[in-house]
Amino acid sequence: MNNIDMLDNCNLCIRNCNINRNKNIIGVCKTDNIIKIARADLHFWEEPCISGKGGSGAVFFAGCTLRCVYCQNREIAAGRMGEEISLSRLVDIFFELKEQGAENINLVTPSHYADKIMSAIRMAKERGFDLPFVYNCSGYEKVEVLKQLTGLIDIYLTDFKYMSPESALRYSHAKDYPKAAKAALAEMMRQQPQTIYDEHGMMKRGVLVRHLLLPSHRKEAEQVVKYVYNTYKDQAAISLMCQYTPLGGLDNYPELNRRVTKREYEKLLDFAVE
To answer: Which of the residues 27, 120, 125, 198 has an alpha carbon 20 to 30 A from that of 134?
Structure first.
């Protein structure tokens, strides 16, 4: 993979912007060719098998390849928040998080920096780095890029947001999301076909599929659960989340302008257990 060529005509993500990020032309992800991170710290609010007792060593990358109308991290996703760092500094951050007791390195919203992340992981491993790397992504991933991550990523922590192209278009401006997410998940499962935990219940390898329940979308959530389970059985773990919070700017999406009810979430859990 030629990093310079990719950014000269950037097709790192599935949007295929074909713009020159090396000349500071900004595409959907809202970033140029410099690594920009909004935060790097121990994170205790991921799934228990990811955060553990020590916390997940989370590196929050600025920008995002999706444009979800209900985004919970709008300033970060829009690239308006963060600090520009070098590749070598990113590697140093991995080691600093390990020294703080991190259980793993959690690469949050990494897709548009995949080329640099690959280089950073290789550099860290050459220096003896041995914590698992977690690729914490939206599910709207490019299979060709994921293949380049083979052998570098230990855990895929991926969203599966929609089964309906209509929902994907309305809420994330990505009608092809369901098709892309299915293909991306298949590649993740090819790389990590079995979920492996240590004696403390910490995930060391595998795929964990997340779904955030949206208000009025329980049936679609059930379709996601059904697809993942029917396709992969117990090979993939599933995390069903209910913490959706409307943050304003949703006048055109009144169905999303409320919290998820306890009844909606319990019905989804009952369906999953069944």
So the answer is: 27
Residues 31 and 137: beta-carbon distance below 8 Å: no
Q: CA torsion angle for 185, 186, 190, 192 (degrees, to 10)?
A: 20
Place of tokens 């949206």: 214
> Is 78 within 8 Å of 251 (Cβ atoms)?
no
CB distance 240 to 267 below 8 Å:
no
Q: pLDDT by residue (tens digit) across 161-219?
A: 999 999 999 999 999 999 999 999 999 999 999 999 999 999 999 999 999 999 999 99
Listed in sequence order, the residues at least 6 apart from 47 whose beta carbon sits closer than 8 Å to its beta carbon are 157, 208, 239
AA letter at 189: M
d(CA 149, CA 152): 5
pTM of the model: 0.95
Residues in the chain: 274
